[in-house]
Model the fold of this input.
Amino acid sequence: MRKLIDETAMPRAWLRKRKRDQYYRAAKRTGYRSRAAYKLRQIAKKFSIIRTGDVVLDLGAAPGGWSQIAKEIVGEAGTVLAVDRVRIRDMEGISTLTLDLDTQGAVEQLKEWIGGPADVVLSDISPRLSGNKTKDHALSVHLSGIALAVAAQVLRKGGNAVIKVFQGDVYDDYLDSVKKQFSFVKGHRPKATISESAEIYVIAKGFRG
Done:
């Protein structure tokens, strides 16, 4: 589901800046599959989203950085299920599924694969960036809406979710839709977020069921 940026099309200055980034370098050093792993680590620490033994569903999981962090937290007693529209390379202790959630019947197939309620739903899904902020925002809200719809169908009562969305004209409307389904909702930008990015993470706790 996550549409990755094609680095070959990016300016060399951008690539040089990325390689100097502390989180990019740390991910390379520690074996995390993306710098985004540190975003989830910071979110989980601040908001206690994930606990030992939880069942965690990671939407748009490729290349797998968030799933790696989730697995560290849930431990051997927990379960991490990673899904993406592109194939995810195997990760020890993590189940993967190739599935485009933006297709008919996808949620039903996902629920059958999970086999029961989840404690946490994660979504770091992004649209392929076009450079048009209005278009990118609209696509982001659409994908975040899919993540929210999945969460509403697979979470247990009292469960938690973290969903990325780009800020823009309808961000507040999206936040209101999340508030209708969770008892605690807050927009948050973890320290690892790139300063120029429009992304924000919606922290949602206490699914109303």
Q: What stands out?
A: Helices lie at 12-20, 22-30, 37-47, 65-74, 106-114, 133-154, 171-179. Confidence is low (pLDDT under 50) at residues 1-10.
